[in-house]
Amino acid sequence: MSYNEPPNYGTPPPPPTPGFGAGGYGGGGGDHPQGTTILILGILSIVCCGPLGIAAWVMGNKAIKEIDANPGAYNNRGTVNAGRICGMIGTILLIVGVVAYIILFAVAGSVNFSTS
């Protein structure tokens, strides 16, 4: 035995630990083809264009039904659900904004600006 070698006690080293993707449930299929589109529409509905939230909400509901009908085919349910929820939030913000404008114009129209 030389000084550079570790001592051999007759036991093999432990096997390497598996990575995050090894083993488990079998992986599932690929991404739903509209998952990224739904997420982008949902985010845009919150940031700049509220009507896109309606599209994200409707497309997200349809995609969630497709994913739930065949759970082994798609693995991006979280992305689709996040886009759907962002679409809901964007749609609600759009409705609140429209109602606020209606109230603002109704109040402004009822104010009398005469100074006599």
From TrEMBL:
Highest taxon above the source species: Bacteria
Residue ranges, compositional bias (Gly residues): 20-29
Record's compositionally biased regions (Pro residues): 9-18
Membrane spanning residue stretches: 38-58, 85-108
Region (Disordered): 1-29
Keywords assigned by UniProt, alphabetized: Membrane, Transmembrane, Transmembrane helix
Stated name of the protein: DUF4190 domain-containing protein
Organism: Nocardioides ginsengisoli
